Amino acid sequence: MPLTKKLLWILFALKLIIPFLLQDGYYQPHRDEFLYLAEGRHLAWGYMEVPPVLSVFSWLINLFGGGHFWIKFFPDLIGGFCFLLVGRLILHLKGGAFALFLAFLPFVFGAYLRVFFLFQPNFIEIFSWTLIGYMLIRYIQTSKTFYLYFFGGSIGLGMLCKYTVAFYTISLLAGLLLTPQRKIFLQKHFYGAALLALVIFLPNLIWQYTHNFPVITHMNELKETQLQYMDGGTFVKEQFMMFLPVAFVWIAGLINLVLVRSNRNFRFYAWAYVVVVALMIWFKGKGYYILGVYPILFAFGATWLESLTEIRFRWTRIAMTVVAIGLGVVALPLLLPVAPPEKLTKYYEAIGSYKAGDFKWEDLKSHPLPQDFADMMGWREVTQKVAGVYAALPDAEKLKTIVIASNYAFAGALNHYGPALGLPETYSANASFLLWMPDEYKFDNMIYVDDRMPSEIELFKEFRTTAVKDSVDLPMFRENGTKVFLFEGANDHIRMGITELIKSRKKKFQR
What we know:
By secondary structure, the chain is mainly alpha-helical. The protein is built from 24 helices and 5 strands. The chain has helices spanning 3-22, 31-39, 53-63, 68-92, 97-104, 106-109, 112-115, 121-142, 145-159, 165-177, 188-210, 214-225, 232-241, 247-259, 268-282, 294-308, 315-335, 341-351, 371-374, 379-391, 395-398, 408-417, 457-460, 492-507; strands spanning 401-405, 426-427, 445-450, 465-471, 483-488. The protein has a 5-stranded mixed sheet.
């Protein structure tokens, strides 16, 4: 095996190992991970938030016991496969060992370190974008028709991973139209590939139709609660900050595609980058929404920087390495929670991150920790408190008690940790959990988890007794202050009211 291929596999192995060595054992799964794990227990062709592919990974994780290792293993593995695609492209571009090394750095000193260690749709989204771009570039390099069908198949599969693949596909097609590669539209197999993409995506499209397109509802909720605060300047700044230690590599890739004559056949990708950035600014997307466009740019950038320094300016390779690793080591505690919260906050104070307001959460306020890190703690403690309230009930009352959580994170965490503590299934009317709620309710007591009373306060006043039985006191936890309510003595009006309430909410997603 050639030395460069051996290096590629060595770096792949390092990519798999490093995140497990870095993340501190204090942290638990991220709040969103609990939602996606729950979807693996309700396999379907679609969900309120995402297409179905992620649920297959969830099913496997649950099959293997649902442990922390398996939750992190699959995003880490797919991240490794993404790097392999980048490495393969570098080899096809005649790149060597230094190019592979440069392209590896974003996976340990950039946003990919975190994204490929979180069980969220982003890890398969980025891989999908990379696979689509790789297949298109290989078709242009070789003119082999099967690459064109792999391109179409990758789009179809990508749409089953995350719907943002549509924006990327539109951008690629626009890039092709704006360059001589528009000749691909005269190729009959291009339309065969498009048909293949549609056939693969069709089951989810049918599911969306039969559920009144919940993806639109989900996007509207995002727009109202989060995306309304985004602006173009912040979006552009985030493109550099996400890969600050190695931003020079993807910038070099963009310059390479624009200026280097030998790569003019791939200039469409530079246009695609411009188009996808413009689309996301127009739709007020978050900066990380286009993380998938960068692996290809890193491949072209790393290859070009290697060729530029092959004979002259070889000393700059040392400079690039020192700058990337130096800044990367400083950035590591910002990318993964490498220490308990107390130590991290001291580090952030030392480097001035907190004073600079670097950690603004969705509430637009500055906090001591990144929001993601604050979402990786407290869930086991919440579950233990709910289990304690449930265990204190007489056995006869337990059979007549239902557990309800205000949002998907609580419901997912309770269903993840709860069975081992004797808790029954927890329900929620939030996110995809709404679709899994029972149609009828025959309970006498309700344990409710939130930081405040249910919004339907008048209905809940009819319980015979209401009490706050416990609460969470974890200052760094984003859901700090969460309360465990116990409502006892339901009547028929309450049961009918909740039945009708859930029925009306479900009806929105039924034809």
